[in-house]
Amino acid sequence: MKPDPVTLKLISTSLLYASEEMGLALRNAAYSPNIKERMDHSAAIFDSNRRLLAQAEHIPVHLGSLPWGLQNLTRTCERLGMDFEEGSMVVANDPYVTGTHLNDVTVAAPIHHRGSLVAFAVNKAHHSDVGGKVPGSISPDARTLSEEGFVLDPSYLRRKGRFVGAAVGRFTAHSRTPTERKGDLRAQAAANATGARRVLDLLAKYGRESFDLASERAFSNSESLMRRRLSGLRSGSYEATDYIEAPDGSDLALKVKVTVSRTGVDVDYSGTHEQVDYPLNAVFGVTISGAYFVLRCLTGDDVPANHGAFAPIRVRAPRGSLLNPTYPHPVGGGNVETSQRNADVVFRALLKASPDRVPAASGGSMNNVMVGGSARGSPWAFYETIGVGLGGRNSTDGIDGIQCNMTNTMNTPIEELERSFPILMTRYEFRPDSSGAGQHRGGCGLVRSYRVLSDRTTFTVLADREKHFPWGVAGGKPGKGTEVMLRRAGVLRRVRTKCTMTLMAGDEVEIRTAGGGGYGSPRSRRRPDVIRDVRNGLVSSERALLDYGVRASNEER
Asked: What is the total count of domains within the chain?
């Protein structure tokens, strides 16, 4: 007897919660603040044909790279003669195999039931340091992949249920923080074990036939729903250009042509700048993720994120371009910064296809901060990203100080940061007057300041939107751009948003992140909303008068 629709729905929903539980297991078992506190990781479950069954709502930049990466990983393992045997897990971080960048380590576990491969549990986690030129491993001036850190080719992490010491040792030996790396790898293994246990529970309860039928039904339903939602976009071809800012201040163009038709959506990046010899290249898995993310935003989060949801979307990028580089071009910043610009340019292209749903541009940078050195005789390394302002929308303001678009992490709590590292946080607050003015203003950026407490500390910043500000929509004004300031011996000066500095104890770096663009004419904004923003310190009385024509003061009620 075939299973009823309720049973099939229970199986597919259980898989979604299993992937979420994988993420929780990874977070709870991790050693590094970047995973334990910021939750810089993603988890997913695939069927035996490497098709995405369920992916937790973790990091959007992993949305397309996990499926792309698993396909590449399994093909590479086959070529190397590595079998996904029962009780094994495979680990790799080569971006040209698994997607994203070297810091993102992928661990894949085959799931066997009664001697047959039935599924995969896969997770990806950002390790705070994997070697390379600078602590944190994302150097603005790396010229090859090997300068960014240790490249781990596909290797067994576990065999017959036991850790393979050689693989773990080879990876951790190249990190400045080997104990953290070992702990985080074990946390990733625990996450996959959790996913495998939940899949096997479902198979024990419902059987293989019901499990496979539920998977096929979920794919079909998601594809049908996605096609219906895509039909709500205006048919046609839409083009846009945006720019990522190179370390030397020059502009690298990202060009896209999005064609909406009855057969689906084609996203073509022809005309995008060629690949470069510094780490702003984004591997193709990252590029796919950006296109998927934007279209999911426009079609609704009730479309389950599985293989079927992405079937109507086709993505192309010229080989050898910034969005589809060739080995061994460096890619560390492409995953974090170029990915953000990719989302911006696809949103911009679809403004005319969906004018009521496309927001103004968000802050457009992950604002990567990597710090490290030696304290009390031991090396240390720290990594985090900083939130920005979300762009205004046609019905509401943008959100202040949020990790937006291709990232979905938390901040590092100041208490954890100061407890673990020789850093004193001197400011963490919303950035006044950073939001783009509009009927619905953009969100405000953030100010986050780090005072280092030990000499010869290496401080790296990789951010964007320094000169190309987040754009507004329908008469809204752009948000303020990113600024990085260095305070040394009482003197404050501005530095580039992509740089590495050697700091002495007492030096302070202040990151001022970009605000979101505004939506609609600023003069249409309600006076009480402007007064509230002034009272809350988000907009100055001077900007309230200049942008909105409203006289207000901080004391006004």
From this structure: 2
Where is 23: in which H helix or E strand?
helix 5-29
pLDDT in tens, 132-152: 999 999 999 999 999 999 999
> Position 212: which residue type?
D
Extended strands (E) in 284-404: 313-316, 368-375, 378-384
Residue finishing a domain among 223, 241, 276: 223
Per residue in 238-291, pLDDT (tens digit) is 999 999 999 998 999 999 999 999 889 999 999 999 999 999 999 999 999 999
In whole angstroms, how large is the CA radius of gyration of the chain? Answer: 23
Residue 298, domain member (yes or no): no
| Domain annotation covers residue 268 | no
pLDDT for residue 557: 44
**Which residue among 189, 223, 257 closes a domain?**
223
Do the domain assignments include residue 69? yes
What CA–CA distances, in Å, run from 29 to 35, 115, 171, 182, 327?
A: 9, 29, 19, 11, 33
Residue 40 belongs to some domain of the structure? yes
The torsion angle over the Cα atoms of residues 272, 276, 279 and 282, rounded to 10 degrees, is 30
- Rounded to whole angstroms, how far apart are CA atoms 330 and 116? 39
Q: What is the pLDDT of residues 348-368, one digit of tens each?
A: 999 999 999 999 999 999 999
pLDDT level of residue 554 (50, 70, 90 thresholds): low
Range of the domain at 80: 5-223
Torsion sign, CA atoms 215, 221, 224, 225: negative
SS (H, E, C) 522-546: HHHCCHHHHHHHHHCCCCCHHHHHH
